[in-house]
Amino acid sequence: MMLRSHYISSAKSLIGQTVKLAGWVHDSRDLGKVRFLLLRDKTGIIQVFAKKGGVDDKLFELMAHPRETVVQVEGQVVASKIATGGVELLPSSVTVLSTPSVKIPIDITGQVPAELDVRLDNRSVDMRKPNVAAIFKIKSHVARNFRKSLVFQEFEEIHPPCLVAAATEGGADLFKVQYFEREANLAQSPQLYKQLSVVGGMDKVFMTTPVFRAEKHNTLSHLNEVLQMDVEMGFCDENDAMDVLEKTFLEILSMVKKECAEELKLIGVEDLVVPSKVPRHTYTSLVEKLNAAGVKMEWGEDFDREKEAKLLSILGEEAYFITGWPTAIRAFYSMPFSDKPETCRAFDLMYRGLEISSGAQRIHVPELLIKQLQARGLDPATFEFYINAFRTGAPPHAGWSIGIERLTMQICRLPNIREASLFPRDRHRLTP
Asked: Rounded to whole angstroms, how far apart are CA atoms 127 and 401?
């Protein structure tokens, strides 16, 4: 038997009816002859009111409990001119389901702020704060609308492995694991496998999958385990891939703005802008703009955070693409332009001054793939299964990936990407 008949948000519309609610004691007040209890569940908070003499003595005593006590309250919903939300609950029964046995390490009401490390060390308590819960509801809607958009665009969902033999990005920053008698790696990306799915004839695929990068950074925008929303599509070039990315990205923003208005307001985001389109700028043109603005940058360098922030102010665009990247600084599988091989068909999507997605048309010609691997000092023999797939006949194809934590971070205006991860994994954090 369910311990609740309704969530608080729906119960508030049932004035005059008896409901059964369950959640945590958010706060309580004892005014002698009157007691108030604020009951909280994942949908909101409702005031429970009892007057001495108006209920039996035992029930009146049960109205006094420390914060974060888990209770079930049954009672009648009534209109109230003073309660937040315009309604309150007159209890007929209060049942204690669990009582805290330790001091609550975080103030759920938000009146006393806590350091981020304290919050992350006690994440299961931190998540009870309405503004923190709002972040993860928004993140859930980001993932949900990514799927909805791609399904509508006739993509099929796949589920690639996280244990791989070779470095999927060609780098050395891998987490090694023992795989029976062999050594394996945690996947840096689903890249190779989503390409193989397209080569296998699935043509248009998407996935949501964790990836792992053993990079020893301590930045506000990197984690060592992240969730990627990936797409790969056959018989296309990078412009076709950007068209799909633009459509999907704008639909995600639009639906989050529509579906999560209360959550956005709760975290202080009341101006979520949904652009009508995403402009495209070449890498070379942006390097020129930076130099013209007095920010020195050599062609062939990558954009650091300072330069990305400067471009945001120069362009004044919420979101934009960077296209035509130097081949040498992109992944080995990025297709070079045939008439200008020092540049390639790669792109990044920038959102509010931060790269949230990258992609490219891929190399589908085995000989060119081997040449690019060798140019990076990589052994083609390690990628033999990958190269062989293209020897069986591979169409031109392209794809991209969105980091869901980064996108959530930018939508929610969070200062640290760790706030967009339920249980973040970084260089120092492996628990909880």
From this structure: 27
